[in-house]
Amino acid sequence: MSTEVPLHELNEQENSNSTPPFAGAAEEEDGENSLLDLFIVLAERKRLIFSVTATFAILAVVISLVLPKRYTATVTLLSPQQNNSMASALTSQLGSLGGMAALAGGSLGLKNPNDMFVAMFKSRTVEDAMIQRFGLMQEYQDRYLTDARARFEHYATVNGSGKDGLIHISVEDRDPQRAAELANGYVDQFRNLSQHLAITEAEQRRSFFEQQLKQANQNLADAEEALKETEQKTGLIQLDSQARALIESAATLRAQITAREVQIQGMQTYATGENAQLIQAQKELDSMRAQLAQLGGSGESTNGVIVPKGQMTESGLEYVRRLRDVKYYETIFEILARQFELAKLDEAKEGALIQVVDPAIPPDKRSFPKRSLIVMGATVAGFFSGLLAVFLLAELQRMKGDSDVSLRLNRLRNALTFRRQKAT
Q1: Of 78, 94, 142, 379, whose CA is between 20 and 30 Å from 37?
Q2: How confident is the model at residue 87 (pLDDT cuts 50, 70, 90)?
Q3: How far, CA to CA in Å, does 175 sit from each of 64, 132, 182, 248, 365?
Q4: Which residues contact 23 (CB under 8 A, 6 or more apart)?
Q5: Mean pLDDT of the chain
Q6: Based on the number of CB atoms within 10 Å of its own CB, is 344 exposed (0-12), middle (13-18) or buried (19 or more)?
Q7: What is the pTM of this model?
Q8: Which of the four CATH numbers 1.10.3470, 2.50.20, 3.30.1890, 3.40.50 does domain 71-199 have?
Q9: How many other CB atoms sit within 10 Å of the CB of residue 252?
């Protein structure tokens, strides 16, 4: 017995198993409908978007008018440039000592000298001096100096990294006149600090050679006094020409060795061990030590210097030693004195430590608040806040239309309340 299936049931099964010919078009139409629904939601609640945006803009206007005005005064400075051409020009005038002076006056400056000056402006000493001079602790109403220093650093900026090579100092204050006074006073306090410091290369060399020159002068005076006492005690006033020439040569060479050692020590304070001039100075020092060794002496003394044949009395040997010391300290003093004068000339050529290009003047335009930026930013934020509010309300309304979701929302609302539920 065969079972026949009605024709209309076969057609329904074929239609259910096959893909509708216009499925892609239907999905595209759904996307267009979703976008259209979004615009409809925005259009229906356009008043809410406008209200939120206008509220943010009005609040921004009110706040920008209420905020206290602040003014920024700026002073522009020119830092000293590292330049040692004066020392190079005078090198030829030093004769055999020109090579040593050229090494002492070599260019060993910093890559960017402004970085050092900016760091000094931001030093605790300068900032504390500013706080004490202008009474900023009382103005900022801070109990501790650390808090006042942090507040001052917030209102003062020092920038020396610009392409113009200048240092710009900006200070912000509510009073334009006081802002200019603070900026100019900042420079004054820095100058008070820098008077006690050797900052530039020429100043460092001048300070170093000045100390060495004072010591050499004292040693020379002591040696001359000792020679005078020896002459009075022994009665000797001169030696034969051969002995005197050997003693003077050895003393001069030993003095040059000591001066070169002092020079290398000074160069090591502002040059690395790979500096070509420092390496050259070390080689020349080794060569002079070898020459002194050939004369029978050492770097520390010339007691073994070769003397003419024949015996010398004890008084003659004592006279030789005293004369040798005098010649040694004379040469040391001469070398250090010339290098000291070179350093002084370089320091004078560098000019003032800090030169003011543009002094700070009371600004005629406020720097804060920037009302236009505040209002524009608040308006944009209000617009997006209005869009967010519209989307949240639309989603909440959709959820309330669903009975299951609405029931869960009611349960959540009841759970969030702190009122005690009545027993039913």
Answers
A1: 379
A2: very low
A3: 18, 19, 10, 72, 11
A4: none
A5: 74
A6: middle
A7: 0.48
A8: 3.30.1890
A9: 17
